[in-house]
What does this fold into?
Amino acid sequence: GKVSAVLFDMDGVLCNSEEPSRCAAVDVFAEMGVDVTVDDFIPFTGTGEANFLGGVARVKGVKDFSTESAKKRFFEIYLDKYAKPNSGIGFPGALELIMECKNAGLKVAVASSADRVKVDANLAAAGLPVSLFDAIVSADAFENLKPAPDIFLAASKNLGVDTNECIVIEDALAGVQAAKAAEIRCIAVTTSLDEDALQQASPVFIRKDIGDISINDILYGGSNAYHNERTENTKNISSLGNASPEILNGATNAESVENTNSSSSKDQGLLGSRRDILRYGSLGIAFSCLFFTIGNWKAMQFASPKGLLNFLTGGNSSIFATNEGESLSSRVQQIKKYLADFETGGSATYVPEFPRKLDWLNTAPLQFGRDLKGRVVVLDFWTYCCINCMHVLPDLEFIEKKYKDKPFTVVGVHSAKFDNEKDLEAIRSAVLRYNVTHPVVNDGDMYLWRELGVNSWPTFVVVAPNGKVLAQISGEGHRKDLDDVVGAALEFYDERKLLQNNSLPLALEKDRDSRLITSPLKFPGKLAIDVQNNRLFISDSNHNRIVVTNLDGEFICQVGSSEEGLLDGQFDTASFNRPQGLAYNFKKNILYVADTENHALREVDFVNETVRTLAGNGTKGSDYEGGGRGTNQVLNSPWDVCYAPLEETVYIAMAGQHQIWKHNTLDGVTEVFSGNGSEKNLNGSSPTNTSFAQPSGISLDPELRELFVADSESSSIRAVNLKSGGSRWLAGGDPNFPDNLFRFGDHDGTGWDVLLQHPLGVVYASDNQIYVADSYNHKIKKLDPVTKKVTTIAGTGRAGYKDGDALSAQVRDHSTN
It folds into this structure.
């Protein structure tokens, strides 16, 4: 396919800097009195300085290790000793290839897991001017570094080039994995690892170093056909070196057109005049646009002109453009300087006032011109279905506690994606479930969203005490950014006597719900059944425990102390953190638990009455491949589990990074099974060309042919082939446009006619039917996997708590297992 941009990794690709980096790291540890070798750092190559140093510190058991201090010293040693300007660390052929790419009309970028201070130093040492590159993306602005795709996705966005028209050049396994996760083609070089090691991540091909990569390798997009032809006949390929990129791209495009019209003779050509072709082509485009508009109209309702502008320009994020290597005080001073320039600039945007008709939770209605005047405010645009919005709640809680005595307030602006999420009682339930204690406003009509040009969940808008919008930033991993800008703003505006620490009319929902306080269960998540022993297992999520009853609901015992935490041990001392999915192993009398907010897989042993952790360590991971053993393998919000007894494998719905994983109970290895990590509704023939959107419920068929998935954010039910790891569509969602996660509703029928709304649970039953918890429609539905017919069997479609006949009973936001 066409190539329009090249994303160069730096260390090991442009610069021969991997060995000097390891030497500088050895020097850092030597100053601590810790004996390490350069080889100790190889497993952490390409993952960013924090993990590069911190990973070895963990392996060596270094006590009281400070990542920030180590990074600071590392940069000092590296810049002083190993990376002096024009010191010749550039790989031969790097400059030449960059220039050839630019001459061919391609955009070029550096996309590195190193901090910006090191990127600049290395490029200077290699004699590669920064001005050569159309973009430089470094680790400073990201929480998730390689092998997460974030850096490459950001580089693609900065260049304004789709990922399918980019190609990456990488030397590290983590980098090749990151390119794969971003769905970008990758050429690997063996400057850091040998060919066998790199093949694990399946680059399109491998070269010795950047000097061995030709412009035609890039223009042909790393195609295997070209690679094979080059290998067999380098003379013929080199003769194309003088051909223009237009000719080369034209040849590639012509080949793809020929392949899609195989019934036409190559000699015969296309029938009809050019005008006919244009006429029919235009008509086809018109019908395609109409079809797209009809299928995506709900998603388009969230758009606004300002939101589009912010998306294209990146919004007002310059306040965060600082270097990771800086100390806290210097970064705060830089932000304060920005604020001084900002206040004298005269072009500020003022935050719109909250419409008076809006409903509020945790407080009486607030106004910027009254209650919030003189306070620094962070507006958190969220919707309670969104896993990313859940992930940032600990960040907001951290900042709220840090500045609790200051004139600072977080206001949650609930901007619903799903129709059900506009309901005030549903939002109140979410506020209670996630223990949100700051003011929350229900902006169901998305007024503030459109006025401020927000285009994704979560988005933070920082507002000054005078009502001016200081900054807007989207996504996870910005605790430090928010902390620094809030701290700097409080200092800056305090010095100008603009702060007012008036009390707010808070009235927390958790203090007003007596039913919740006395309820024996608190937001139970999932179920599992032991029919032979007449037992029902309940994940009592907000009590941080597992409740065991008989099938009549009579209490037998509980697992866990009810204290929030990650602690193995006996039933009465072990702890969980909002567990969700459960799966029972009858043969061993073991229950597997998706311990969601601990980002862990747990095992409950009813023989010895103990709990132990099988995978995950309490921190949110960003590993899209896996393969680690035990607690060394990090997880990301596992939401459901199911057990395959013949394989002795636990399958995991990894909602936090939109994948299906598996855990081998025999060797303790946990790894990805299906999904490339992109949040899409994409069905493919293999794990790497399949994408999910927050999978939240999974169930196996008895013959272990398929795994059925409640793909909540796409509002669809999918089936994963247990042999290939590919998937197929069954019902709901939009199977034609994978990026459209807004086709939802409540409609029974067959195939395309079916509409679901954020299903959270699915179970394959003994009658060969699939039962679906259509959660935001408050219904249980039955899906025939053969005919794809969906029928409501319980629930009225209105939230409530009412027993009775199936179609008159009422439930609310349920899941099943």
